[in-house]
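Structure ticket #2291
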Amino acid sequence: MVAIEKQSAVLGVSTDQLMENAGLNVAVAIKNHVGRIAGLKVLILVGPGNNGSDGLVVARHLKRWGADATVYLTSKRLYIDSKLISARQYGVSVISYVDDPDFLKLYSLLKDCRIVVDSILGTGVSRPLEGRLKDIILAISDWRLKESRNQLIAVDLPTGVDPDSGWADPSSLVADYTFVLGFPKKGLFQFPGADHIGKITILDIGIPSEAVDNQNIDLELLSPGWVGNTLPARPRNSHKGTYGHTLIIAGSRNYVGAAYLSAQAAIRTGSGLVTVASPACVYPILAAKLTEAIHIPLPDNAQGGIDSGAADVIRSGLTQYTALALGCGLGRSEGTREFVEKLLFDPDGLETPLVLDADGLNNICGFQRWWEYLPSNTVLTPHPGEMAALSGIPISSILGDRIGFTRARVEHWNKVVILKGANTIIAAPGLNTFVSPFATSGMASGGTGDVLTGIISSLISQGLTGSLAASCGVYIHGKAGISATHEHGEAGLTATDIIKRLPKVISDLKQANYGVEI
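Resolution: structure written out below.
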């Protein structure tokens, strides 16, 4: 952002103009959020730098529209401060921390206030909160928790959160809404910072596109507009063959549901045909439950998993499928491990695009240089525990830099890699890395990963590349999960709740008038 703003100035859009644009658009966003602005008491916390200047512009416009806007200066400003002068000229009340040593004025302002705007520290400052600033922050945090109608709005990012790493001071403000200026900062999607941002809206502040073009930005936030435009078309004169044939090899005696969930997700995402290959012992259950799928009962072993001899059965018919998903609920019996190795590591290799998940990953961990045997168009979908097993790196190191670690694995393995979790990371060889905007505890339940595997394999069957299918699939999966939490809450959400919403989410993505809200 520093480089972009400098380049903007070179191109004729000054930093002052960017601040004016930012302040106006934040004020408009607040007005749209609250509805009636006239008479509304708003307190704007203003810091020493450009983020504080943004806040002063916000205060000026809110006052112009009839709000009872007060600025509280949390630190010294420039001796000649045009933004502060302009705010005062419009009638904005200004109180300085210097004139409020015991915070009595701050407490008095907060009594009748329902909206507080945090424009204290922006992207240019990252330091521990201490002294009087920390005391102010604690007072605001206490106010926010007193009543549910009290709302904190952060300008660009909450004070105390590092915009690059996501580190957050223990006293950092927790926003209800964060109005991000120009572009999202990656620290907003890394924990613990991600816990402080509330609902995000990205605001255009008038940065020239040319200022961005030469910055070599290789990290993107998944957005509904991009996903909607990337999803495969569905022409009216199509037929089931148009949308591919997905083969899902999944399930075992203990994990019948995993096969059902992945297959049903593939069906609901739009595959023309879905075939489920599962152990013979679970075939009757799946056949009764999955009426739209084709079924292949495979030889099973004593542990209820797929027998190693089934690899030949699968390989003999692979050419009819446009995508292969392997791993959901397979189990880890010796026979199943041998089946996975025979299927994937045969000298003849595989050409069918592959999505490898769960026990598909767990069963190859011990095979030397396993990544060299997989098809080039393979998508790996590990959660942090599976990533640790695949890479031999502790989970703590993976979580310490999820973006950097995922990129390093892509470079090493030369495969598309999805690191699942809150704000899932998607990286592919030679392409930009994507970050999912979604994080909810509602999706932290068994079977949700199986659903994601079905979605991605279905999108590959419909013609998307592995990297595009991975990115679109992660977004669709997350959006459906968020939709389900809005209806059911986060506790007790099931994978089936997500599947039910897939067609509607996909339809909305294709038809919506895309805005900037995530």
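Closing remark: The longest strand covers residues 273-279.
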